[in-house]
Amino acid sequence: MGSGIAQVAAQAGASVKIFDVNPQALNSSEKQTRDGLAKLAARGKLANDQLGEIQKRMTWVSSLSALEDSDLVIEAIIEDVEIKGQLFEQLESVVTPETIIATNTSSLPISRLARRLKHPERFVGMHFFNPATVMKLVEVIAGAATDPTVVAQIVATAQAWGKVAIPVADVPGFIVNRVARPFYAEAFTALSEGAAEAGAIDALLRAAGFRMGPLELTDLIGQDVNFAVARSVFESYFGRTRFVPQLRQAALVDAGWLGRKTGRGIYDYVEGPDSKAPTYVVPTPTDEHRQLASKLVDARPGELLPCADILIGKTRGLTARTESNKCGRPVALLDWFSIDAEGPVGFATSNPSASDVAAKILAAMSRPAQPIADRPGLVVTRTLGQLANSAGDAVFEQVADEEGIDAAMRYGANYPFGLFAWADRFGRTALVETLDAIATETGEALYRPSQYLRNWA
Predict the structure, then answer these.
(1) What CA–CA distance (Å, rounded) separates 104 from 124?
(2) Is residue 327 part of a domain?
């Protein structure tokens, strides 16, 4: 991470010094950075003269005193308050009083890290995302003592380096690691409840636009790392239920099934990457199915349309069985889908007789049908709704504004859309009604709509 940040700064024109106490780490950093720049030049991303100038601006140093003339120092070491604090004390004895000291911490409170500094007003969070040379987002976090002019300087610096810089309140998880928790939690909940197999759950979220499904992403991150973040955020918010860690993930960690790095996690990587991919049989739709499919695209959540002797529509949070009991007919419910996307769409029915109709209507949209257990909010709608809920909490608690949170999730977590942009697309009033229905059907208060979403709707 530190090497990536240094490369970003050097490519933007800054003179950079990279310090580490470990000589091997310094050598590795220099080799990694020079190799990375050479690859950019080989691909035509950098001219040879640019490559030479960037390399001249980068120096690897083994003495902290070499940083004495720096305008900005960015720390990117182990996530340990005590170790970071010792480094910051040493830095203050070396740099000038005007030097800004920034930390790349992803989870530690900025105010706590600043307590050992004589000049906490020049201390700020500058959280890059990995790999720093690729990911656009930088969360800029002010501690209680941080001078607002320092925040403004760091935002401007990050923007000059080609980044999307978002000012964030000093809260656990900042924006991305806080707001994203339901993406993983809802997938584990769906798996634990038997909503569908892991591969199908991931396929549904990929079909919603995400580059990776949540379960395969936890295998890539490492189940131990992802679970540790879940526990940290949960405990930092004193057990707030919307951030509850998942027992299914804890069991993976206890078993040592940590994902790709151990060869087994949610998936068994010895079998190969295709072992988790679901297969689909796509039936042949009739003209009636095609006509109804075109109407369903524009239908509101909960609007049920007749086809033969059943009713079909998009979920509004209730189960198909509850909807059927209300109307006295078999019901098929579709999960949220984007008409311009590809891949499977989930559905559940109150009666097996409705399954063939749902599959044929989805086939008319050129989408495979993925059966899901009849559960409130199904999978995609429930996940996106809870993510929007988490985003609403963050705005209500003044972590950042809507625009900042949407940008953070797009550029820091690679989401296909901002969560408030999605809420507008779904309909905020419909979203509040859907979340209320999920909370009522499940009996879980964590699905109750954020006060911010309720107020806005």
Answers:
(1) 9
(2) yes
Indicate whether 18 and 150 sit together in one domain: yes
Examine the fold and report which residue of 323, 352, 371 is the final residue of a domain before the chain moves on.
371
- Selection from 457, 299, 296 nearest residue 385 by Cα: 457
So which residues are the catalytic ones? 106, 127, 139, 177
Nearest to 301 by CA among 425, 415, 388: 425
- State whether 103 and 48 are in the same domain: yes
Structure tokens at 175: 């924006």
Q: 332 or 232, which is more confident?
A: 332
> Are residues 368 and 344 in contact, defined by beta-carbon separation less than 8 angstroms?
yes
Same domain? For 153 and 42 the reply is: yes
Q: What pTM was estimated for this model as a whole?
A: 0.91
Q: Is the dihedral of CA 287, 290, 294, 300 positive or negative?
A: positive
Is 411 within a domain?
no
* Tens-digit pLDDT profile for residues 230-271: 998 999 899 888 999 999 999 999 999 999 999 999 999 987
Which 8-state DSSP code applies to residue 212?
S
> 324 in a domain, yes or no?
yes
Say how far apart CA 113 and CA 110 lie, in whole Å. 5
Same domain, 361 and 259: no
Q: Cα angle vertex 304, ends 298, 306, to 5°?
A: 105
**Total domains present in the chain:** 3
**Band of residue 275 on the pLDDT scale cut at 50, 70, 90:** low
- The model's confidence at residue 278, banded by pLDDT at 50, 70 and 90, is confident
Dihedral, CA atoms, 148, 153, 155, 161, nearest 10 degrees?
-170
Q: Which domain holds residue 299?
A: 287-371
Residue 76 pLDDT:
95
Cβ-proximal residues to 239 (8 Å cutoff; 6+ apart), any chain: none
Are residue 268 and residue 329 in the same domain, yes or no?
no
Same domain, yes or no: 163 and 270: no
Pair 50, 57: CB distance under 8 Å? no
Confirm if 156 and 375 have CB atoms less than 8 A apart: no
Q: Which residues pair with 137 in a beta bridge?
A: 164
Which residues are CB-neighbours of 316 under 8 A, at least 6 positions away?
301, 302, 430, 433, 434, 437
Q: What is the pLDDT of residues 200-236, one digit of tens each?
A: 999 999 999 999 999 999 999 999 999 998 998 999 8
List the alpha helices (DSSP H) in 12-94. 23-42, 48-56, 81-92
